[in-house]
UniProtKB/TrEMBL annotation:
Pfam families linked to this entry: Peripla_BP_2
InterPro entries assigned: ABC_Transporter_SBP, ABC_transptr_periplasmic_BD
Name the record gives this protein: Fe/B12 periplasmic-binding domain-containing protein
PANTHER family per the UniProt record, alphabetical: MOLYBDATE-BINDING PROTEIN MOLA, VITAMIN B12-BINDING PROTEIN
Organism of this sequence: Sphingopyxis macrogoltabida
Fe/B12 periplasmic-binding domain: residues covered: 19-264
Amino acid sequence: MLAVLTGCQQRAPLPERRGVVSIDFCADQMVLGLLPRERVRAVSFEAESDASFAAPRARGLPRLRPQIEDIAALRPAIVVRSFRGDARLDRQLRSMGIRVVQLGYAGTLGDVAGDMRRVAAELDAETKATALLAGYDAELAAARGTAAPAQSALYVTPGDVTTGPGSFVADVIAAAGLKPYREQPGWGTLPLEEMVRRPPDVVFRAFYDSARYRQDRWSSSLHPVVAQASRRAKEVEVPGSWLACGNWLAGHAVARLSEARKEG
């Protein structure tokens, strides 16, 4: 009665925070890989990205941009992020009582399991992580060669870059029993002249399924020299999502490459 007389109304209690949201496509991969759908409140606006494997699993889930207003409105208990967001967003979220789970950076295949187990423990999803990592370990074990790598694999992307020792992709190539075609560490442009003199044994393509990364016909990766130099090479193409985020999906790429090596 007093509230009516004074024109005041009691504010309804806010709903309890619950569930998990992810705010970039690598976080989407991890969340949708580890958690049952009913625990996922929303995924990132990149969930439909072709660099994510998440599109079918994300169907029907709300989309979210990595900004405090959108996240706060959903009242999640946990935000999972990789490369979107920043320290300021983390502080804002934590001040509101929302836990932030940051994915680590996997620089090698050996980094994958440790980071997945840590994230799974924070999300109470250890059982699912164990199952995914068992499959990952099995793919790596089956791919392992018994002899020193003899065949070379040239990594090719729509962006005309390739990579040598010291990169995650080079680790994938080595795990498949091959050696990176590029002998220098790090990343560089496609070595067209060298490819003529020393053709690769395997051409390993990724991200050609992605409209985001698709190049026009002037791309060096579509150059006739590349086609000529690689005409005797085995062609292996994998979805970009298998290599985009450094998680268990990379095991699929190792397995696909290894199959090509074993074909001789």
